[in-house]
Each structure stands twice: as structure tokens, then as C-alpha cells.
Design brief:
With about 280 residues, this protein is an alpha+beta fold. It contains five helices and 16 strands. The protein has two domains: about 180 residues, Rossmann fold (3-Layer(aba) Sandwich), CATH 3.40.50.150; about 90 residues, Lipocalin, CATH 2.40.128.20. The chain binds S-adenosylmethionine.
């Protein structure tokens, strides 16, 4: 069990009393330059830092944020090893901010690194295109609505060691025995969509559960369920199976890119692809 997990387990023991009731105040940890932080300081090993930024495909043009940035190692690596445009670290502990600034200076990336002594729950990080986290499961879950609602669809999120509750990771890597969770922020695609193809009107009702889509489609009066529905960033895909006029089962694959209330894409039937534009009507 590594040091962080030990601290985590101890924290959980403190959080729940013998009867299992949850205290009103979340558990706080001692910082080095501040009395209370929400997560103890434990650095991410370098190979895990590298794997996180590789999984996120961090690179030129990206704006990277590390929430709870510690000694700044992920910010420094994003700038020095992955050449992101800018990187921002946020930490509540002034001792960590001092270290992080010194590490960025020594790595020669201080001109593109900014460290803020601030509470990550109050900081505006909406401009991030790559977001890294090494926090705690309950902190990830608390951040989840902000990640889903404030970050642009397509933003890549990577968490060392901890998942994000019901929002399943798109990919989980294991490096040196540690899990790395990866998500792409999904666009919001729930609602009623309509399109026309070869003279037929199609209507799909899409329900969304994070990156998973379900619902049904109506064409020529017949209703069929949507299958394998996924939204990854702004890219949407689903399949339907319906009987054609000859009674044969036909698979229809929809692949499109959503932009607000419009989805441009293709419908593929029997290997034949037709361009379609779907519009959200509700
Ligand atoms: C587990 S460490 C991760 C450090 C770094 N991201 C890494 O992976 O090496 C968590 C960091 O979060 C900081 N922290 C804890 N609560 C915070 C809060 N509410 N706002 C900002 N930073 C916080 C701690 O001071 C600590 O440096």
C-alpha cells in the first residue's frame, strides 16, 4: 500500500464513526504552509506523470490545468516534455506554490507556467483543454458537475488513482501498479433529433448518461431502439436494427459531429454512406 493510499484509508476511518454516520464537515488534512487542505500532498511518480499526459495526448495548442498541483511536476512536464501552450497549477498550500514556481524556473518553463495559491473548488478552470487530477474519489465526484458543465466538449481529463463515481472512464491504464483514469468531456446530446434521408423522415429520442446514449428512433412509423450509443467529445455514434420492406434486418449506423442543436454526419447502411444533417427540435 503506498503512502497516499495509507493516508486515504486513515482518512476514511476518521470520516465514518462506528455507527457509520457521516460527519457534516468533510475530513481535512494538514498542509505544510496551511492548516487545512482537502487532500494530503503526495506527488505523482514521474513515469505516471508521463503516462497521464501521453494518454491525454497533450501537445502544442493545449492549455493544461492541474488541480491540486503540489510541487508543479505535472505542469512542468506538460510544458517541458509535451510542449503545451500554457499550463496552470492551483494549490491551496503556499509551500507547494513556492516549490512549484522554483521547479518551473529550474526547468526553464516559468514563462508559460502559472501557479495560483487558491482553492480548486473556487477557481475558474473552464479554459483547460487537458485537466489532470490526483485528488480523492469524493473530491473528483464533487468536481464532476463542473467538469461536465464548464469544460468544452472534447476536453481530456486524466486522474491518477481515483475514478469519478458513476461517470465511467473511457480508458483505464495501469502504470507501476497505479491506475490512470481517462475521460473525454462529452457534448450534451439528449433530446429529440430529426433528419431526412432518401425522402424518409427520421426522428430519434436520445437519452444521455455521461458518454452513453440510449433511446429510440422512429422511421416510417416503426420504432426501434438505439444501440451502442456513444458520445466522445463532440462525436456521436449509434446503431439501429430494423426490418426493411423485404422483411430483412437492416443495420443503420449513424456517425456525426454535434454542434449545438445540429449534428452533421453520415448514415451507413449496407456499406453505403449518405450525408445527413440532424436537428434538435426539443
Ligand atoms: C495528492 S497531491 C497531488 C499533487 C500533484 N498534482 C501531483 O500529482 O504530483 C494533492 C494536492 O492538492 C492540494 N490541495 C488539497 N486541497 C486543495 C484545495 N481545496 N484546493 C487546491 N489545492 C488543494 C494539496 O496541497 C496537494 O498539494
Amino acid at each position: 500500500m503506498d503512502a497516499f493510499r495509507t493516508l486515504l484509508v486513515l482518512g476514511l476511518v476518521f470520516m465514518f464513526n462506528v455507527s457509520g454516520a457521516q460527519p457534516e464537515q468533510p475530513y481535512k488534512y494538514k498542509g505544510d504552509g496551511i492548516d487545512e487542505v482537502d487532500v494530503p500532498y503526495v506527488p505523482t511518480p514521474d513515469d505516471v506523470v508521463h503516462a497521464m499526459l501521453t494518454r491525454a495526448n497533450a501537445g502544442p495548442g493545449d492549455i493544461h490545468y492541474d488541480l491540486g498541483s503540489g510541487d508543479g511536476r505535472i505542469v512542468v512536464s506538460a510544458l517541458r516534455d509535451f510542449n503545451v501552450e500554457r499550463a496552470v497549477g492551483i494549490d491551496l498550500d503556499p509551500a507547494r506554490i513556492k516549490e512549484a514556481n522554483e521547479n518551473a524556473r529550474q526547468a526553464g518553463v516559468a514563462d508559460r507556467a502559472t501557479f495560483y495559491e487558491a482553492d480548486l473548488f473556487e477557481f475558474d478552470f473552464h479554459e483547460a483543454t487537458v485537466l489532470t487530477l490526483y485528488l480523492l474519489p469524493e473530491i473528483n465526484v464533487k468536481l464532476r458537475p463542473r467538469i461536465l458543465n464548464e469544460l468544452a466538449p472534447g476536453t481530456r481529463v486524466v486522474s491518477h488513482a481515483f475514478s469519478m463515481g458513476e461517470w465511467e472512464a473511457d480508458v483505464i491504464d495501469t502504470v507501476g501498479g497505479r491506475n490512470i483514469y481517462y475521460w473525454v468531456v462529452p457534448a450534451k446530446v439528449a433530446g429529440e433529433w430529426q433528419w431526412a434521408m432518401n425522402g424518409t423522415e427520421y426522428r430519434a429520442t436520445i437519452a444521455q448518461n455521461f458518454q452513453r446514449l440510449s433511446g429510440d428512433m422512429i422511421a416510417s412509423g416503426a420504432q426501434v431502439p438505439l444501440q451502442y450509443g456513444v458520445v466522445r467529445g463532440d462525436m456521436v455514434s449509434f446503431e439501429t436494427r430494423a426490418r426493411d420492406t423485404n422483411g430483412q434486418t437492416q443495420t443503420m449506423l449513424f456517425e456525426g459531429t454535434v454542434n449545438g442543436n445540429t449534428m452533421n454526419g453520415v448514415v451507413i447502411i449496407d456499406g453505403k454512406s449518405t450525408d445527413v444533417t440532424a436537428r434538435r427540435t426539443n
